[in-house]
Design goal:
Length: 315
């Protein structure tokens, strides 16, 4: 049998006090929970900008890295051309240069000189020429013979692109008996050799390499009856170019310079045989036996610098 409990005044007072204490305890617990929740929310809000800054920083670093990579890429081959991307700043269209030096137009303005080297690649002299060009901060166009374009010489060829030079075609064999038998141009042989030399270039530099510049061995001016061959090459977007100054390093021994002093005199005097123009295409050679040309090259560069010339390449 359950006995009823009589609640007296004192008991009621004690019960009320207990209820108050219990309510305060519940409120305290709720307050603590709410505080922790709010604090966590604030922390998340505070951390978010920091995370965003890290993200932005990463994005910025990524952009900088891409920018740096883009700068480096400028030393690589410009697709569809015979030079690097950065070399576009001083590359001149071969047609415009040709018309100017032959007195047909003034398409190229100002004093511009094109240093050109025939008959490479020579594994000894060609790098020496490039070292001098790099030292003086100027660039050149190299007319290579196709049979020298081999895997062994591949690094030299690639270096010419990355260091800002231009590459041109100078036939596969450089054999006058094959190209001009009896001093008569053999059109099919010439076109074949130009195409095969292009294939040799592309085997090392890739299919994106393209040079439309050709120099006939011996020079166009040395042969008669080349008109039909010129036309056949033009159909394939190939244009020939000669020169209007030369250092004399390939002339007959009786007139060939034997010292740097006589080579400079020969170079200066050679201008009188060509139409007068401030655009100069200089013929030199970077093959075995042309050590004097390499020795004199710094003086040749200074010769043009002192006259206010800028240095271009052919494209």
């Amino acid at each position: 049998m359950i006995k009823s409990i009589k609640i007296t005044g004192e008991n009621r007072k004690a019960l009320n006090i207990c209820l108050i204490i219990a309510n305060l305890a519940v409120l305290a617990i709720l307050g603590f929970v709410l505080f922790q929740h709010q604090n966590s929310k604030v922390n998340r809000m505070v951390k978010t900008p920091k995370n965003e800054q890290v993200s932005k920083g990463s994005s910025s670093s990524s952009k900088e890295a891409k920018k740096e990579a883009k700068k480096e890429d400028k030393t690589q081959l410009k697709k569809g051309s015979n030079h690097s991307i950065e070399a576009s700043d001083y590359a001149y269209d071969v047609t415009a240069v040709n018309n100017t030096i032959r007195g047909k137009s003034d398409d190229v303005k100002g004093k511009v000189v094109f240093l050109t080297f025939d008959d490479g690649i020579d594994p000894t002299l060609t790098p020496q020429v490039m070292d001098i060009l790099k030292e003086y901060g100027v660039h050149a166009t190299f007319f290579h013979i196709g049979y020298t374009i081999t895997p062994e010489n591949g690094d030299i060829l690639k270096r010419q692109i990355t260091e800002g030079h231009a590459i041109a075609n100078h036939s596969l064999s450089h054999n006058f008996n094959l190209l001009y038998p009896g001093r008569v141009p053999n059109q099919s042989q010439i076109v074949y050799e130009v195409n095969q030399t292009m294939a040799n270039f592309q085997a090392i530099l890739g299919k994106d390499f393209k040079t439309r510049i050709f120099r006939y061995p011996g020079g166009h001016m040395s042969w008669q009856g080349l008109e039909s061959t010129d036309h056949a090459l033009a159909k394939e977007d190939i244009e020939w170019i000669d020169w209007n100054m030369l250092c004399g390093d390939a002339e007959p021994a009786s007139v060939r310079p034997t010292t740097s002093e006589t080579m400079m005199a020969y170079l200066d005097g050679s201008q009188k045989y060509f139409p007068e123009t401030t655009v100069k295409v200089v013929l030199m050679h970077d093959t075995a036996g042309k050590e004097l040309t390499v020795q004199t090259l710094p003086q040749i560069i200074e010769y043009f610098k002192n006259q206010g010339y800028t240095f271009g390449i052919l494209e």
